[in-house]
Amino acid sequence: MLLYAVTDRAWLRGRALPALVEDAVRGGATFVQLREKEMEFAAFLDEARRIKAVTDRYHVPFVINDDIEVARACNADGVHIGQDDAAVSEARRILGPDKIIGVSAHTVDEARAAEQAGADYLGVGAVFSTSTKLDADIVTLQTLRGIRAAVSIPIVAIGGINVENMLQLKGSGIDGAAVVSALFAQQDVYAAAKRLYATSKELVFG
């Protein structure tokens, strides 16, 4: 959870996503989520398999955003689902007992419900304003601390996080930070990952 990389092809600029993911994990990303909102199943699955080959080589957990069938077909380590996506129980039925299921949560009630349903971790946000999800409501530091107090499963914060603001989350009890543009929008993804990893260690461990 320490440095959770969420892909975004909007920033590719002609570069190959699997290569950028490799740069990210070499630089310190400890977890990778493949997020594709517009891609057809076959292309999504092909890309997922290519990225899983990278994450397997570096022994980094790899999950698919939303699409349980792609996660199953590529044998990903799990899936991350939102509040409007499939239920945790459905994801568990399809993927089996050993896969990772992450759930997005924005309130204490959502966090508790996800844990009770069997989620393995929570993605909580948006903790800062973000260009990735323009309609996302901001989760305050107080709410983040409330969620931490309410559940025992790991929590990763997401939403507008970068090197400059990450340490504002210090003391919230989270287990890591999820980044999108702070990583994949950078010209040198490897160098960005190194900086973000160092900062996330300071955030979590002090």
TrEMBL record:
HAMAP family: TMP_synthase. It holds the Pfam family TMP-TENI. This is Thiamine-phosphate synthase. 2-[(2R,5Z)-2-carboxy-4-methylthiazol-5(2H)-ylidene]ethyl phosphate binds at T130, S131, T132, G160, V180, S181. Keywords: Magnesium, Metal-binding, Thiamine biosynthesis, Transferase. The keyword Metal-binding applies. The gene is thiE. GO terms for biological process: thiamine biosynthetic process; thiamine diphosphate biosynthetic process. Its cofactor is Mg(2+). Mg(2+) binds at D66, D85. Residues 3-183 form the Thiamine phosphate synthase/TenI domain. Pathway: Cofactor biosynthesis; thiamine diphosphate biosynthesis; thiamine phosphate from 4-amino-2-methyl-5-diphosphomethylpyrimidine and 4-methyl-5-(2-phosphoethyl)-thiazole: step 1/1. 4-amino-2-methyl-5-(diphosphooxymethyl)pyrimidine binds at Q33, L34, R35, E36, K37, N65, S104, K133. Binds 1 Mg(2+) ion per subunit. Condenses 4-methyl-5-(beta-hydroxyethyl)thiazole monophosphate (THZ-P) and 2-methyl-4-amino-5-hydroxymethyl pyrimidine pyrophosphate (HMP-PP) to form thiamine monophosphate (TMP). It catalyses: 2-[(2R,5Z)-2-carboxy-4-methylthiazol-5(2H)-ylidene]ethyl phosphate + 4-amino-2-methyl-5-(diphosphooxymethyl)pyrimidine + 2 H(+) = thiamine phosphate + CO2 + diphosphate; 4-methyl-5-(2-phosphooxyethyl)-thiazole + 4-amino-2-methyl-5-(diphosphooxymethyl)pyrimidine + H(+) = thiamine phosphate + diphosphate; 2-(2-carboxy-4-methylthiazol-5-yl)ethyl phosphate + 4-amino-2-methyl-5-(diphosphooxymethyl)pyrimidine + 2 H(+) = thiamine phosphate + CO2 + diphosphate. NCBIfam families: thiE. Its EC number is 2.5.1.3. One of its GO terms (molecular function) is magnesium ion binding. The keyword Methyltransferase does not apply. Coiled coil: none annotated.
